[in-house]
Amino acid sequence: MLFPVIFLSCVSVSSGAQTYTQQTFTESSVLNISSCPITYYGQQYEQLYVNITSGNVTVCFNGFFSPGAGGDCIVVGSMDVQEFTFETNLHPSSFDQNLIRRYLRTIQNSLECYIEIAFSHVSVLLYHELNLTSAPFTVLLQIMLETQVGGSTVNTIHTQTYLDISGCRHSGQMYRPRKVISSDPQTCVRLTCNETAALYTSSCGPLERCQGNGICVLDSTCTVTGPTIIDVHGQINSIQDRCAYSLFSTPSLPDFRVLGNFEDRRRTDVSFLDSVTLRVDGHYIHLEQGGRVQLDDSTLTLSSSSQLENGVQLSKDQTGVTAKLSLSNLTISVFFDGDTAQIRLERPAGSSVEGLCGNSSRSLSDLRLPEYSSTSCEMQYSEPADSTINCTSVTERCSLLKKAPFSSCNSDIDPEPYITACTNTLCKYPAVDGLNCQFLKAYARACSLHNHTLDGWTLKTGCSSEAFCQNRTCSDHEFCGEKTVGGDTRCFCRAIFASKYQANNSLGDPTVCKQNSASVTLVGCLLEDKDVDYSVLHLNDPTCRGQADELTHMVTFSFNSSNSCGAVVMSNNSQVIYKNAIMTENSSSIITRHDHVYIDFSCVQTQPDIKTATFRIRDSSVIRHLTSGVWDYTLTMKAFTDAGRTRAVESSTELQLNQKIWVELKTDGLDGNWVVVVTDSCWATDQPPANSTPRYNLIINGCANPADQTVQVVGNGKGTSNYFSFNMFEFTGGSGEVFLHCKVHLCPKRNNCVPTCPAGDRRRRSVSSKYEGEAFISMAWTR
Fold first, then answer.
1. Domain ZP spans what residues (predicted)?
2. pTM for this prediction
């Protein structure tokens, strides 16, 4: 590039090593400068038109000077000039170059040549006075000079100077270096005359996008698909466990983070992105399988129209769910289709991106989020290789990303990370559940974010742009997959969850036995693995069906005291066993295509341990809380002075010998549909211990003592309470205190629990089944 600099001088002197030519002219002339063409304000010329008219001098580049002609000229004021000298120097010295740079610091290019036009008049006097005999030129003083472009004055000079005549031309106009000629804020396209006086068109870079306000921002995409993260720099990382990780965060926004949650599917040793969580100002937006979106604990209903939730624009279509928000100087868009997440970031150049999307060089342990993960998420599993997988075929399939129509995007989006992610996963995991298209679809969408339309890619690959398993919601222990390749979908058990049942060849959890009920819960996805429809299963009673939980897909079968559902009650002295079974309903068809199911289960209940207590009758009543096994109840012994048991004996009540009293034994906390209370025996002693002597029996083997005609027993073995009556007495020669003791037990109501007391001997002939253990309760009175 040549220096476009004006030298104004009157004397030219040889500097020894320079090579130049010199001519003297006494009339207007056209000069050939093709050996050293001059760029005058952006226009290069190879001829000079020098006028000497009436002592005035003009140097023009596009024709002799004529006022109003609109030429590119240098017009020198009146000098009474009669001749001029023209010199071309093709090999300037370093001194020349340094001198020019000293006065014109904006010029950085090398000096290749220069042209000098010298006018002589009074120059000899000035030459000697300045004593610049070693200089290549002498500067004239007191001369007015104009530079004109298109006839318009650009510069006017009144003193000695070096003048930079570099510039640019555009649409007939001249522009100085570093001048913006035009700028479109919508496209960020800017035309400038740059520092080297060249027209330069600038726009956003390959990773940038115009915001529509003249500002370019970095536009980058992070893709998370399967176990692989392809960060904004195109580097890859792989997750081997089932933990939550930070995908994106930035120091400038401490209250915002994007998390990725990874889980297993058909194999225990391969993890997949399962959901994406956005934490925004203390709220959590969960993007889950099937297009389900939750805000904290609430499920949102979305459509293709944006819905604003806590500053986040949420929308959903057949391809997946998109969450978009603008925070400070960051715009972020998170797309999730249930398998692949793509995080698009628009941010200022130089801004920091942290998390797996920003810096794959950080260790996974630094980016793992224990507070969002299960305690066992880091446990590693191993399984034998799948011998049905042909890795060569897999590689060919994944390498389609290098072929048309994908190849049209290869220059902007490197396909290699996607190919690596594809082969690493599918050489280990079967190409089911949409995986055969998942990585191709992820690349196609990344291309679309950079305005690449890959026409016909779905047709060529046999894929669909729609989200896999859209609108099918599975529980936490399930994932959505294909029943057959390319066929219908359903929820499958995750491999690790299913393994604990498969180890025991079980379809569900152990029986849950409670005081008055029993239940068994089966795993819905395990039933589907056996091709069993839970709706055809029932208990012994065909009307008792399983209840499916809509969220967990667990199926529960239960019975209780109100409805035993055909349960069979058995006893073996110390235990009562309730047995039932889950079975497939009988079919009238002569064929069936489903496995027959028969699962029996049972509950064993025992009676509480022995409990004893003593009190004086004037304390009114005694209550004992009894707990043993599944039973948790209270037993109350209370005395009354009337048959209706409305007037309780209080501490101030005076009782007379031979006065009839009624004693009630009552329980609270038992289910009368299941059990009844049987009073086995009651007796009196004159000392607190129940086994002391003398002893007087009131009830023997559940029946009134035949030797005491005042004793009557009512309701024994019929419900959760009973009572008896007798006439007051005292021990002969005793202290005047009488201690009353009773022994009771619980009996399954389905059995015959009422003691048989014939009128003759007033004893029962047989003993009903009872729970292991008995309860004792005692009271005392003083005459």
1. 512-764
2. 0.64
